Amino acid sequence: MEWNQIIDAIDLQQVMEMENRENNPGKSQVEQREEIERIYPTLSYLGSIESAYASVVMHYNNSFNKNSGKIDLVDEFFRLPNEFKVKEMWEIVKYMTQMPSVSKFYSIVKNDVVKTRNTNTFIDELVVQGNRYLEDRFKIYMTNKINNGNLPSVAQDDVTSTFRLVHGFVSVRLRGEYVGLQDGLIHGCPLWPMVYYCLRAGDLSAAIYCLTNNCLPEFQDVISLLECKLKNPSSPHFRMFKKNIKRLYTTNVRNSTDPFKRSAWAILGGLDEISEIAKTADDYLWVKLNMVQMDQESGCIRYKNLQHTILEEHGESHYDAFKQPLLYFKLLALTGQFEAAIDFLFRTDNFRVHAVHMAIALCELNLLVSPQDTSLPLISIDPSDAKPVHRLNFALLIKSYVEKFDAECLREALHYLFLLRHCKNLEGQHLFKISVTDLTIKTKACEKIFGKVQRDGIIKGLLDEFTDAKMFAEDVGQDLVKRDLYEEAIDLYDGVNIQYSLLTVMCKMLSKVANLENAPGSLRNKIQEKAIIVDQRFSREGCYVQDANIVNSFIKLKGLLPFFDLYREKRYPEALKAIYNLKIVPLRNAEVDERVKNLKKFTF
């Protein structure tokens, strides 16, 4: 089997596992494959990862429409890709959406997302989650660096797993080179590297353990700060301890020969001083996030300054973003700049599909900031927003993605467009309806989208998966008429049997084309053929339109077609008889009043 086939098989298996996780978990792989192909037969038109993503979107929408519970899109999307960089990007999205406040954001009005994102509570949670990701990844890094066979043993009494991990890492990292390091050892390793890397791993208890076991009384302020941060960081004592640390750092620690001591004190004091220890982008960002203050005066400004530095001052060129996409995405996403991160990925061929689905997941959580004007570019800045907030045009993102496959994969296209159901343009029009109108015009697939009413029943359309297609068709038909697409509106109304609207549009078109030459294939010829079909079906199956004027107008206007045909053929006696039978034109004085009265009832 070729490698591409293996990858396709893996991705298809993931699709089937997702689709059957909640239903029929005992099905065989063959049964699962048959079911996925039966439910979503057009997935074969998409690539393997696109198909996998599409199946999740469809499953999500179907669950939403059936009120069968909300699916965790981030978690479902995370399962799909196998590539390391993409997996890591989704891991970052998982971390940044696992905030305590996220569950409250479902009820937030879209226009209030910016306001919510700028609150201290939200920023605090973004900082915590960003740090948590960086700390967890550093633990993995330390684990990979450790060679257990060459490490000294550590006493197990009351020692945390993080302490043992850091102890092993410091032993490997420093290799006994302790020149300039101060304040003694802890279990054979220098104190401040142990404290610093415990902090870097996010384990305050392990850092406290190091300091308390060192038994030096001058570090009690640091211990008190760590204990307060661990138990009650909102306590007024925490600010007092922090002030003491800043003062002691300035007077006693800043000129220390121990870089780990300087770094640990600077971080605990909230001092914006990057030491030589922070060598990687992850280290840099972790230090910076630890500098962010959440007090009313400076919290938001400091966080925005960090965002501005990464996005505006440094930007794509500084980080060589297109050669290091994971790095740049990480810096943006971990500082809560989701819109800029997605915009960047969307501009790369390899990550475009993943960017779209990250946007979908964030939008469904009400964490994405979009412009009110959906005609704007993909990324834009609203002058009313605080810098450096950017807005991502979610509607444009979805439509740009869908247009690549909407002609071949109508069902999938509609499912993606359904994600715009809450979006409106500046005129207050629902973007889902507008998008369905555009899709109808592009594909000319009225029957497939909206269904068709037949003598022996109704053939449901794809739109019935989301809403009452007939009611939806009324609005779409009106939009088609506004665009002067009368033929498309006629086909739509005829297919779903909206008789009043059908006759209204037919009357408008008949009045416009009746006197034109009836050339084969002309608009006049098409309208005449459609009018004959409608008339025959109404005669056969009945017409439920209660407005007699519109029905009578249709009959009269349809009757004018043979009159003009006879007139053009110079068969004047027959033409005169045809027009007289319609009772439109008076041929006697006595008929004038009646004909005028009838004419006033016409609907054109």
Account of the protein in words:
The structure is a single chain. It is built from 29 helices and 6 strands. By secondary structure, the protein is mostly helical. Among the domains are: 1-71, no CATH class; 146-295, no CATH class; 445-600, no CATH class. The strands form 3 sheets. It has a two-stranded antiparallel sheet with strand order 1-2. A hairpin with a 2-residue loop joins strand 5 (451-454) and strand 6. The longest helix has 26 residues, at 120-145. The radius of gyration is 35 Å and the shape is rod-shaped. It starts with a helix and ends with a helix. Residues 1-30 and 296-300 have low confidence and may be disordered.
Query: What oligomeric state do these chains adopt?
Result: single chain
SS-derived structural category: mainly alpha
Please give the number of β-strands: 6
Helix content: 55-70%
Strand content: under 5%
- The largest beta-sheet arranges its strands as 1-2
Name the shape in a single word: rod-shaped
Structural Rg: 35 Å
The average pLDDT value, as a whole number, equals 85
Q: State the major sheet.
A: 2 strands, antiparallel
The number of helical runs is: 29
Distance between the termini: 66 Å
GO cellular component, one term: nuclear pore
Family: Belongs to the nucleoporin interacting component (NIC) family.
Keywords: Membrane, mRNA transport, Nuclear pore complex, Nucleus, Protein transport, Translocation, Transport
GO molecular function: structural constituent of nuclear pore
